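Subgroup meeting minutes
Present: P.N., E.W., G.H.
Scribe: E.W.

1. P.N. recapped why we're keeping a running log of single-chain structure predictions: easier to compare across weeks, and new members can see raw inputs and outputs side by side.
2. G.H. added today's entry (418 aa).
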Amino acid sequence: MSACTVSVIIATYNTAAYLEECLDSVFGQTLRGMEVVLIDDGSTDDTQSIIQRYKQKHDNLVTRYQENQGVGPARNYGITLANGEYMVFMDPDDKYPCEDCLERLYLATKEHDVLICGGNVLTNNNGVVGSGYRAGEGDVLHSQNQIIDVKNYFYLYGHTRFLFQTELIKGNDIRFASYRRYEDQVFTVKALGMAGAFYELDYSIYEYRVNYKQVKINADLCMEILRGFRDTLKVIFKYDLRRMFEKNYDSFVRQYMPYIRQYAFCGNEEFDKVVQEVNEVVEHTGWRGKDGLITQKRMLEYRDKAAATKEKLDEVFGSEKTVILYGAGANTKKLISCYKHRMKNVAGIAVSKANGTAFEMEGFAVKEIEGYDSYKTSALVLITPGGRMKDEIIKTLAEKQFVNYEWIDMRFFCADMG
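Output recorded in log:
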C-alpha cells in the first residue's frame, strides 16, 4: 500500500474568497497520510498569496501553477501528480462538512473492497444547508450502505462525492474532458463503467456551495456542452448503462434545447454536424428517449415556444400589475439576470420555507409565501421551478387562496431573452 492514503485534488481559478474555508476543511480532516494537490489555473486574484501561506503550514500541500486552460486540464494535471492510494476531487468554493468525511470514505472503501465509494452531498445556499444528494437517490433499488451495480445507477453528476482508487484512474487513463462545461461527466461515467460497482455510503461527505452566477451560454460554450454530451453518450453506451441513458437523455435535451435551438439548423454547419453526431450515437444503439432525436422540427417548435415565452414575459414586466416571483433557485436567478432592468413591478421573491433565514437575491427580498398575504388578490405570482416542485407550489398557492398565478416553463427561456 502507498504511504499516502488519499490525494485531494483541487483545481482553482479566481476563487480566493472561498479558498481558505475550503482548505481549512481539507486540512482539518481526521484521515492521516493524505496529501493535497492544488492546481492554480492562472488565477489573477489573491489565490497565490493564500497558497503560499498554506504551504508554510502544511508540508503535505503540493502546488502547481499553469496558464489558464480550464478546470478539466487542471484536474488532469492534478491526477498526474497524485501519489495517494485513492483520490478525491474538491472544488475550491466548497468544503467538507465534517472532520471525518475522508476517513469515512476511506474506511468504507477498504472494508468493502471496492474501487469507488460515494457519499451524500449537502448544498449551501447563502448559509442555508440542504440536501443535494442522498444515498439511493441515483439507484433504481434505492440502495444505502451497500454495493451498487453500476447497471442500476443513473445519477450522472457528483464526481466530488466519490473516492476513486488511483490505479483505476491512472491505469485506465481516465481523464476529464478539456471542455469548460460538461467536462466531468465523461470522467465519472467511465470510472463507474470500468469499476462495474461501487459502495454507496449514507453519510454526508461533501458540501456544495450553490452559486447562482448566471453564465452567458454563447455559441462556443454551447458547442462545448453539446460535444461533452456526445462524448458522455458514447461512454454510456460503451458500458451498456441503459438506465443512465433513460434517466438523462431527455432531461439533457430539454435543459439545453433553448440554447441549442439558437445555433443548430440555422446555417451553422459545425453545430449541425455535432447534433447529427449525437443523433447517430443514439440511433446506433437503438435506444430512444421519450422525446426522440434532436431534429430540425423540434428546433423549430422550440423557437416558437421560446418566442411565446418572451412575449409573455415582456407583457408581464411591461405592465403595472404587481408581480411576485416564486422560487429562489437557478431559474429565478436566470430570469432576474435578464429582466431586472424591467422588474419595477416585482414586490419580491417567495419561497415555501426560508428556515427562519431572511436573505436577498439580486436586491429582491426573499420571504416565505405567507409574507405576501396582502397580495393574494392583487398580484400575479410567477412560478419558475418545474417538475414536482411546480406542482407543490401550485397546490400551496391554491390552499392559501392566492387568485392569480402562472407557471413559466423555463426550458423555453435563455439568456438572450431579456
